[in-house]
Structures are given as structure tokens and as C-alpha cells.
Amino acid sequence: MTLTALTPRRGTPEPPASSPPPGSPAAPALADAYARVRAHTEALAAPLSAEDQVIQSMPDASPTKWHRAHTTWFFEQFVLVPHAPGYRVFDERLAFLYNSYYLAAGPRHARPRRGMITRPSNAEVADYRAHVDAAMARLLADPAALTPALAEVVTIGLNHEQQHQELILTDILHAFAENPIAPAYDPAWRWRPATPADGMVSLPEGIHTIGHRGDGFSYDNEGPAHRVLVGPVGIARGLVTNRDWLAFMADGGYAEAALWLSDGFAAVQAEGWQAPGHWREIDGQWHAVTLGGSQPVEPDAPVCHVSYYEADAFARWAGRHLPSEAEWEVAAATGELADAFGVVWQWTRSAYLPYPGYRAADGALGEYNGKFMVNQMVLRGSSLATSPGHARLTYRNFFPPSARWQFTGVRLAAFSA
Ligand SMILES: [Fe+2]
Question: What keywords tag this UniProt record (predicted)?
């Protein structure tokens, strides 16, 4: 990504020092959350060999080892160095390797060349993680040190690491899909059918408030909450399935220029797209490289690894539209959308733009969201790879319209349901 993320909401009054900030757990809970999130990263990396953890299969994807180290650098750079008196940086050279895109945090290694880095080794990265974890444990055990502002940065760091946990899976899947023998991350993994759900959730014309409200954690790009005019529109209760997509392919969908945005058809031609990402035709049958390795395409599973361009063309072919992010949020709030969360992210027709009144925070963490608000489209919901507890109704994921290595799928909308 362009990770979504991560600044405290500007203009939010800081609570008194004696109380935790909104959305941030008290010290013991924060220490527990820290240990749990960090352990989950290592659990995700555990099935991967040292060779697996070095590979970078394309500029947008990063090596597993890089994700493990970068998330560690985040806590070192933004929590320990400024807030832990006497903290000893593990290795001064690592900031150059593991700063992702924070211009205010100093120079950094080129993103497309992350796969060139064989040293530090996996074991040294594990030592780096352990060094930072020990210092974080000491800091989080000291209630006097844990100011509300610091607790909020730690909370951001945990949410940041959860985002990279999803990327660990999407990035290694892309690498495995490039491998002719299609290794399995988890040999037992299988797609499940989409939840059967016919029809549409009808939204009559009305004014609704969207965006994050309340005390729970959110990224700054989820606010300010504001009112929008929605409807009349219908939002499909169910996701588009592989069966639907195979019909689109059989009808010549990838070859019919009239269905596509100009940039989209250019991408089809330049990339040779004939099917969703990670699909391969073997002896006349379509297979998909999944986390469980290469498997025949399951017709009832939701289509996945499609770009915005493909989602838009499919919607046009189907005589439908993609929902706007406001339409998606209002429909999902009814609780009547099947598979809104935890299956595939759903493309919306909304460009990733600031909400009215949004201002990025000052400083390095302010670089996290605002500077990416151009040339990308919003996705809503969450995916099967999203870490537990990370999804929200108001969450705004975003990727360029050509990206399709994430777990991205389609939910349709109709203005004449
Ligand atoms: Fe990051």
C-alpha cells in the first residue's frame, strides 16, 4: 500500500493526562494488545522459509522479512527514540533499510529494491524485534510514562502492524503465484462459498452521516464525520462470485473495449489480462493460486484479485454500477449485507479524497494518509486476510485502480433496483 493510516485526528482535544485517550486501552490492556499483535506477525511469518522471506515479486509487494523489520522500526522510531529515556537503538543502519516513505524520518532505501537485501538475516531481524519488544514492555509497564499522547502513538503502531500483517499474506501469495509450482502457504486452506444472498438493500433518498464517530480508534482519513445525500439506490446483498465472473469472461468481457474505462482497457492490453489475478488455465479449466496453492476455481466463491478497472467493467457488463463509499457505508450499517467483512475488500466508485474538513497532522505521522489522496480508489469492508479486530464500518482502504494482488472483490449497486 500506500498503507492507509495513521495519524491522530487533528483538532481532537487531548484528554487530561490522568485518563487514557479515546480509543486507546489503559496500560495493562495496551501491553497485552502489543504482545498479541506482535506475536501474530511472527505466527504469520512462521510457515515461511528464509528464502520465502527475502523475495520481492514486484515493486508494490515487500518481503516478509521487510514487513517484520519495518513494523519494528515504526515502534523504535516513533515510540522508543522520542519517549523511552535511555533507549539504545538496536542498529543505527536499519532506519535507512526499514523506513518506508516518511520523508520527515530521514532517507530510505528504494522500495522496488527491498528484495535485494539478504542481510540482516532473518535471525537478526528476530533479534531486532526482541530488542524493541523488551523496551516496549518496559515502557508499557510504567503507567507514569504512558501519557495519553504516547498511548495513542502505540495504538497507531499496533494498527499499522495489523495492516502489514495483511500485506504479509497478499505479498507472499503474489510471490507464490509467480512460481510455476504454486507453493501453498497453508496446504489446508480453501475458498469458502460466498454467503447466498439475493436481491438488494434499497436505500431511499435521504441524508446520512458517514465517517467515524465515537471513542474507538480510527485512522484520520475516516473523519471528520459528515452528512451526505444517498439514494435512491440498491446495494447488492451478496458478493459477485466466480460463477458470475466466468460468465463475464465467456461473454468476451476482457475483449470488449466498450465495457472498459480507457485506462482500464489499456491495462488489459498492457498486462494481458484475461482473468482475475492469480488465475491460470490448465487443460481447459481455470485454476487459482490461493493460500492453499493452486486449486480449481470454486464457482460459488467470491471473485477475488480483480482491479478497480475490472470491477468497473464487470458492473457495466452486468448493467449495474459500483457503490459509492457512502452508499456502501449506509447499506452496511443496516446489517443486511452478506459478507460485508472478512471475505474480500469491495471496490467502490469513490476516489480516495479527503472528507470535508480533513487536514493531515503535522510531523512524520501526518505523512501516512493525506499525501496519498490522489489517483487511488476506496475499498470498503475487510478481507479474509484482515487481522482480527482491525475492521470497521468506516474503514477506508485504498489502492490504485490497476492493483489486484490484494484480496479485492466486487459488490454491485443499481440505481433502478
Ligand atoms: Fe508501514
Answer: Iron, Oxidoreductase
CATH numbers and ranges of domains, the chain: 12-177 (1.20.120), 200-415 (3.90.1580.10)
What is the 46 CA–ligand 1 centroid distance (Å)? 20
Q: Do residues 59 and 70 lie in contact, with contact meaning Cβ atoms separated by under 8 Å?
A: no
Ligand 1 centroid from CA 278, angstroms = 25
Res. 327 pLDDT band, cuts 50 70 90: very high
- d(CA 74, ligand 1 centre) in Å: 7
Stated pTM of the model: 0.93
**pLDDT tens, residue by residue, 174-214:** 999 999 999 999 999 999 999 999 999 999 999 999 999 98
Contact residues for 84 (Cβ-Cβ < 8 A; gap 6+):
135, 138, 139, 145
Other beta carbons within 10 Å of 145: 14
pLDDT at 313 > cutoff 80: yes
**pLDDT level of residue 391 (50, 70, 90 thresholds):** very high
How crowded is residue 155: how many other Cβ atoms within 10 Å of its Cβ? Answer: 21
Q: If you measure from the C-alpha of residue 407 to the centroid of ligand 1, how many angstroms do you get, rounded to a whole number?
A: 18
Cα–Cα distance, 192 to 141 (Å, whole number): 42
67: nearest Cα among 90, 33, 44? 44
